[in-house]
Design a protein that fits this description.
The chain contains 2 helices and 2 strands; from the N terminus they run H-H-E-E. By secondary structure, it is mainly α. Strands 1-2 form a two-stranded antiparallel sheet. Helix 1 crosses helix 2. The longest helix has 136 residues. The chain is rod-shaped, with a radius of gyration of 64 Å. The chain starts with a helix and ends in a 15-residue tail after the last strand. About 3% of the residues have low confidence.
Length: 198
């Protein structure tokens, strides 16, 4: 009986030893698997850290780019403001130039009218000069002109000898000068316009 018990005890101990060895092997296997997973996790963490660093660097680059863009925008705003001021100044200059051109156009129109009038007067004077030339070239016409001049001279002398008195009650100064609200010359001065005989 003692021997059977010993055998059972040996079998039991061998079973416990086998189970312990199996369990030890199983635990060692799990340990190696866990170590392998831990290494993979560490490797993954290292990769993620690297990616994180890359992302942070990219973010910094983006921030630098954004800062540069902001600076450019600020400079462009300044340039736009300056350009706007220049454009307003140019519009004012353009308006003034247009006004000056309009004024010059009006003056040119007036000068054209004056030129036309002067041209007409020139033509009239040319005709009168031609008439005078005809008169001066013809003895009879010259005699008539001398007689007309003598007649006008006699008439003028008679008017100087017998001046017509101007009525003071008539409004207006009738040709005499006024100085400080008073008459500057005597009222017996007479001004008469005589047309030139053709």
């Amino acid at each position: 009986m003692n021997k059977g018990f010993k055998n059972i005890l040996i079998v039991f101990l061998l079973s416990i030893a086998a189970f312990s060895i199996f369990k030890f092997i199983s635990i060692q296997k799990e340990k190696y698997e866990l170590i392998s997973e831990l290494d993979r996790a560490k490797h993954g963490i290292a990769v993620l850290e690297k990616e994180k660093q890359n992302i942070l660097q990219e973010i910094e680059k983006e921030k630098d780019i954004n800062r540069k863009i902001e600076q450019k925008n600020t400079e462009l705003k300044k340039y736009l403001k300056a350009d706007k001021t220049k454009i307003i100044s140019l519009f004012i200059d353009l308006k003034e130039t247009n006004q000056a051109v309009e004024g010059l156009s009006s003056k040119i129109s007036l000068l054209k009218l004056e030129n036309e009038t002067l041209q007409q007067e020139k033509e009239r004077f040319s005709q009168e000069i031609e008439g005078f030339k005809v008169k001066l070239n013809s003895i009879n016409e010259l005699k008539k002109a001398i007689k007309e001049l003598k007649k006008q001279a006699r008439k003028t002398r008679l008017e100087i000898k017998n001046p017509v008195k101007i009525n003071k009650a008539i409004e207006g100064n009738r040709g005499y000068l006024i100085k400080n609200g008073e008459q500057a010359h005597s009222t017996n001065l007479r001004v008469e316009v005589i047309p030139v005989a053709k």
